[in-house]
Amino acid sequence: MPNDQNQNPTTPENRPMNPAARRNARRYALQAMYQWQLTGNAINDIEAEFVHYHIDKQLDMTYFKDLIHGVPTHQQQIDQEMQAFLGRPMHEIDDVELAVLRIATYELINRPDVPYRVIINEALELTKKFGSIEGYKFVNGVLDRIAKKIRDAEIQMRKS
User: Which CATH architecture is the domain 16-159 placed in?
Assistant: First the structure.
């Protein structure tokens, strides 16, 4: 009998998940969400622009589309979950860090197939690359508290 811990996670389509392609999906989703926040353009237009002009690396296109459509669709719920942990008004948060927080919070809520530690780690890497110098510390603190609220059972199971 195979050891499930050594198996690659699978996507909803039952294909093995490619971590690099998933990381690239998050990277492009961050850029698309940043553009959406600043311009207010329709997400379908932003998606078409990214698919046609910007994407130049292998990525998990299904995951990219899930993120860029899921965040705007669930923005009110996402922002509500984040608000209690921000410590400042949302309009004072750096635009890159806000986009990272929204994507990661969306994943914490809607992607139980992705471990919370992976979500937080990926969010921190994106913040370090695209955000302000110390922004990753803020993002880490907020996401840790959101994860404890949303993924408490998963966190408790890891502690056992």
Answer: Orthogonal Bundle (1.10)
What amino acid occupies position 72? P
The angle formed by the CA atoms of residues 127, 130 and 132, to the nearest 5 degrees, is 70
Q: How far is Cα 127 from Cα 135, in angstroms, rounded to an integer?
A: 6
- Using one digit for the tens of pLDDT, what is the confidence trace for 17-68? 899 999 999 999 999 999 999 999 999 999 999 988 878 788 999 999 999 9
User: Which pTM does this prediction carry?
Assistant: 0.87
The residue count for the chain: 160
Separation between Cα atoms, residue 34 and residue 19, nearest integer Å: 22
DSSP character at residue 59 = -
Q: Which of 47, 45, 48, 34 lies closest to 127, judged by CA?
A: 34
Using CA atoms, how far residue 31 sits from 14, 20, 96, 150, in Å, is: 27, 17, 8, 25
